[in-house]
From TrEMBL:
Family statement drawn from the similarity comment of this UniProt entry: Belongs to the MurCDEF family.
Name by which UniProt lists this protein: UDP-N-acetylmuramate--L-alanine ligase
Swiss-Prot/TrEMBL catalytic activity: UDP-N-acetyl-alpha-D-muramate + L-alanine + ATP = UDP-N-acetyl-alpha-D-muramoyl-L-alanine + ADP + phosphate + H(+)
Gene that encodes it: murC
Subcellular localization: Cytoplasm
Domain of life of the native organism: Bacteria
Annotated InterPro entries: Mur_ligase_C, Mur_ligase_cen, Mur_ligase_N, MurCDEF_pg_biosynth, UDP-N-AcMur_Ala_ligase_MurC
Protein's UniProt keywords contain Ligase: yes
Enzyme class: ligase
Domain Mur ligase C-terminal: 326-456
Keywords recorded for this protein, A-Z: ATP-binding, Cell cycle, Cell division, Cell shape, Cell wall biogenesis/degradation, Cytoplasm, Ligase, Nucleotide-binding, Peptidoglycan synthesis
Amino acid sequence: MAPAGTASDALDRPHFIGIGGAGMSGVAKVLAMRGARVSGSDTKDSPIVGALRELGATVHIGHAAGNIAADATSVVVSSAIRADNLEMVTAHERGIPVVHRSDALAALMDGSRPIAVAGTHGKTTTTSMLAVSLRTLGLDPSYVIGGDLDAPGSSARHGDGEIFVAEADESDRSFHKYAPEVAIILNVELDHHANYASMDEIYASFQTFVGRIRPGGALVISADQSGARELTARVTGGEEPPRVLTYGEDESADVRVLAIEPHGLTSEVTVRLAESLGGAELTFTVSVPGRHYALNAVAALTAGAALGVPAHELAPALASYTGVKRRLQLKGTAAGVQVIDSYAHHPTEIAADLEAIRGGAGEGRVLVVFQPHLFSRTQELGTEMGEALSLADASVVLDIYPAREDPVPGITSALVIDAAARHGADVTAEHDRNAVPELIAGMAKPGDLVLTMGAGDVTDLGPAILARLTSPEN
């Protein structure tokens, strides 16, 4: 593992544009922990910004040319930063190298034993499960995750161990920059429509990622999901196929899931390892609800085994993972109503989280406040989003959260609402976010579960809903 302070010269004094973002802040944190003099800017203050300042980073609120120090060695950006951003323009004018976040992360992983976690969904959870369980075993990994853990409470850490666990983003092809010893691919589905025109383009992109696996390394991939199976067929048909370890319920899986038993908001999972991995049968607890989270844990177990971590030690350690913020995170309970936050924004994720939470609802109803994310995604998958929402007892659908995109004429949340109604859903449109707490307070009854769902600022509504439920009027 590269010791503290040995990042490349360009990352000695980096300036991050949008430093408060989940992915950017993680890289900035590790660099600060390794001794780099980190600075950055963001549009607003936040707990993440506060945590960076505690690590010694200088963070400016608002973008301005003067934010970039005279001796800055690089300006770090993500794909969300536009070319006309004032600080980006200033960097080019001053001849300061502009480094993509993925290149900075690749530099951090140099000299370690990297595990890179990819897939259309489930990356943050699986990366987090590995980070927490490896720490529980005393292996002290470094990690960069696209979300904040419930424990140990950070999106990133510089550890003294040799393993580096990183979430690998396929959305902009930036995962092509990494050279993992173990690559995990959870699933392969059509998404990120602004960057991929077809499934063939997505398969080609994942094939490039697989081709980056280090000699002697391994690909860990689902044996169940159709896109993953197709990718496996494509990458094993070449002249030098990687070592492949599959996991899942399929009989052919190297780590085969024999049973997933739900117990409220936890699951008990039983797996059988192939003879090449020791041939053992293991039963362990996953401390978050739902079949898809159980399968994420099995992917983490398989990756650890591929890296040489004893499966019989890693399996019980996985129980120490208690969740990631925004991944079915309980925000609180008021008037007998639980309010839970979900980052789900792709139809597969929406359906999976609703099915998972249904098991913990008992006799109560599941009510959803859903905010579609991105015009491009809604244009392509709005019908499927609406169909997935039909799994809830009732849904309130907000306007599309644009994030980095400009509006697309004719594309609104009505695409989701109409599709949900066609599938028999009880669905309500609400254009005013501020009206949602009152609306939910009128709908919810003791025993119900309320999910705020989406990748945008719908997460901010959880506390407001709880406050309204506790008010004397309710």
